[in-house]
Structure formats: structure tokens, C-alpha cells
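=== RUN LOG ===
request id: a7f3
mode: sequence -> structure
chains: 1
length: 528
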Amino acid sequence: MNDRPLTDWAPTNWAAPVSINAVISAIAVVSRATLAMPIIACINQLKWVYFKRPHKVSDMETFDSASRGGMGSVKFLFKIPMNGAAIGALVTLLAYFLGPFYQQVIRLEQREIFVSGNETAAAFSFAHEYFTNVSLNAATGTTIPHSIDSRMQGAMIAGVFGNNISSTFSCPSACRWPGPIITLGFHSECRNITVRTLATKRCQDRITGEEVDNSAKVSNNCTLVTPNGIKLVSDYTRTSNWTGYYLTGKTIPFPLVDAPMIEESSFKEPNFTLSANIFTAVQYKINRPSDVDEMIRGEDIHECTISVAAYNYSDIQSSGNELWIGRRDIISSQLSIRSVNANESDSLRRNETFVYSAPGIPDLSIKRLDLESIAGFLRDEFTDIVIEDGVDPEQTFGVSVSLASRNLTESFAGMTEQMTRHIALGDKQQVQAGNVVQTIVFVVAWYHMLILPIFVTTATLFLLMFTIWRSRASTGAVLWKSSALALLFHHITPSDDPVARGAALRCDFADPKDLQRAAKNMKMQKVD
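=== RESULT ===
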């Protein structure tokens, strides 16, 4: 039973179950009783060997007490320590501790183990495709609004504000998915482009139109261009208003191209290159003092690019509502992209699908119209948002205005995470069954706790061999004299031997059969 579940204990299936602790307790009792019999016999036998020489008559009682239990054994060790029977007295005392040692041999340990579950018990959702019912107006070539995946847009907004949509896993308590699990999703990559962008800054005096230095205390208009080709603007009117925040972005033309985005019309087939990037946003924050005679104190420019990505998860664990992913590999720029289902007779490319692939992962697919819907929503929400200090806004800016007080990197990371979750829980959802953690009681054997039982058993065997040897070596101390009848049929008689100090212990029977026969034929009564 060592290192096995307690449920494997066969007696639990009996009509009258017996616990493993009860069995151990019974073994301890039987072991002690079994050892007591030879120990008592040996002490009584060695008593006769002891009295082959003259000793105090009171020593007879000391031997007799030692054969009865622990207290007598303690007295024996103090009164007659240098005798072979002292081994029996010591073993008698140690035998009292056999019970606790036997109980410590078996320990019950609770362990959490992973057992194979099913998709209902432990499920992790993922998807390799993202296809919705989005459709185009054949006459105008524009997307029909009510066909767009509004839940995806809701997931994007929730991600900006750090809210989570439904979880991609279900687990009753604690679960594990070894993986790998590969799912289609989106990824954002952000960087600080302040230094490189400010190097392109050009300002003009609003009145004269002449180029002025950025630090000039005059009303001016400034333009900047990011390394990715996105144009930024800022205005400053002395004593009136100035640009404090500017958020803009550009979708990458379709078919997706990986090239500067200043002139979209410059991308013509067949010179384009397919890319996983779909949208780039730039956040431009300008910190100005309240004193109009002072100029800009600081400018901060960040760029975030959203792209299609493959997520490779492995060593996934969960406990309650918490999920831990041991390893998360994001594959985006390494994806190879190809276009399929593009019908030349359909100028609107309604069925065109982009397939993303890389070594070691399955093909991932997104319908062109779905990708354009996502890019269009990003463009509408995060492009050309300007907040000017000193001027009351005349319009509501929507979701993107909240980014003025939020970290762009965190907001876009949250948005792409929720977009990935939405795809995993969408119409093309697949489920990976995991392993469920169960708490199982195991039986663990501590064999080192058997050291005392083994020592006591070995000492008893040694005592038995020693007693047999001493009895055979000593004339008159035959083995049968360990019987209680032998003591009854012995009597003390006067002796002329000066060593015996006037007393001798004698028996009239030399054969145990004669002793037994006499005991059966005699009756004895106590007389006061």
C-alpha cells in the first residue's frame, strides 16, 4: 500500500469495513502479545540457572515480578542487572512502545493530483478562425452596419478601460492544460518615438508664415512626422489656446501592406507585401505651463501597432477564477500570409480570406471583411482626436478621449487581449479538455519507524537462543522448569553447605511427565 491511494485499501469494500489504522493497531497488539510469551518463559527459565548458585530467596520474587510486567522489569534491572534475564526485562519495557511506533509506520497524506477531465469539467477555449456574417452593400460597396460583429467592438472598448469579458476557461476547482494550445488573436506592440519624431518638428509663425524655433514665444503651427510616416500637428496661440493632446492613427491599406503609410494611393498591385499589421495609433501629449509666457515643458509621443497574431500557450494552470500561463509565445511578424478565395469576378472580394501560417502551428484564417470591419472601427475611434487647452470642446470625442488620461500601451494591450478572448469564444470556438486537480488521500509507509519492532524482535530471538544455551550448559536447569508447576513442586530444605548459607532448593521430580501426572492427581487447598 505504500504510496498508493487509500481507496485501494481492499477492506473498505467489505460489508464490515476495517480501517487501515485498525489493522495496524491489531498488528501491534498481536506482536506485543506474541513477544511476551517467549520473554516470560525465558525469564522464568533463567531464574533456575540463576539459582544454580546461592542467592537471596527474595531474588525469586524479583524474577517472578520481572516476568509479569513493566514495573517488575524496572526493579529487576536495578536489583539484578548483571544477568541474562536483564535482556528480557529490557525488552519487556521496550515492548510498551511498540504501539506508537507501529502507528507511525503508516501515514495518510493528502495530495493534489491531476486526473484526466472532459470538456465539461476542464475546458480551455481557442479558435483558429474568425468568420462572422458581416456583409457588403453590393450597390455602394460599403459594409452593412447591422451585420458587423458588435460583440467584437464591445470587447475592444472593454479592453481599453481594463474590463474583462467572459473567461476563456472553465474549471471546477484547479485544473491544468499542458498544451500547447494555439489560438488566433491580436497583439499590440508599443514604443516611445519621442526623440525620433521631435527631430522632424517644423513650426511656422501663424502671422508671418516664417519658420520659427519651437521655443519661440509666438503663435505658431507645428507639424511632425513619425518614423512610420504618420503626420502630427500642434497649434499654439499665445494668451489663448494650444494643443494639449493629439491622438491619431492610420489603418494599413488592404491588401495589408508593410510599408510607410503617408500616401495610401501609392500602394498598387502587384507591388504590395502582405503584413500582419492592421492599425497604428500615435499618442502625442504636450505639457504646457499655466503661465502663457513660458513654452512647452515636455512632449511625449508613443506609437502602438495592432497586428494579427498567433498565441502559443503551454503549461496552463488555473485555480478558481485565476489563470496562470507558464509560457506564452506570440507569433506575429513571423507569420506567413496568403490570400485565398479571392474571386476575380467579384470586385468586392466578399469571400477573400487571409490565411496566416508559421512552422509548428496550424493555419489561422480571418475573412477579409471581418478584418476591414475591425480596422475601420479602430480608425473611427482613434484617429484625429485633438484636445486643445483653453478651448471648450464643441463635440464629444467618444471612447478615444479617455486615452488622454490613460497609458496607451496598457490600454491597447488590454484591448487586444479582449479581442483575442472574443475570437476564442466566438462561433469558431474549439475546446481543449484539461486535467482536473483532485485531492486524494495516499498511504505512505515510514519504514524507518519499524526500527524498534525489529530491535525488540531481534532481542527476543537472541534471548531465546541464549536461554536455551544456558539451560543446556547448566546441569539441573532443564527447559521445562520455566513452568509455574516447577516452582510449586520445589521446596527449601536445610543444607550443611556453608556456601548455601543453610538452605537448598530441591525438587522430587526429574521428568516433566511425572510432574504433570502428579499435578493432575493432586488437589490443593489453601489452609490458614
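=== NOTES ===
Residues 4-108+444-482 form one domain.
Confidence is low (pLDDT under 50) at residues 254-272.
=== END ===
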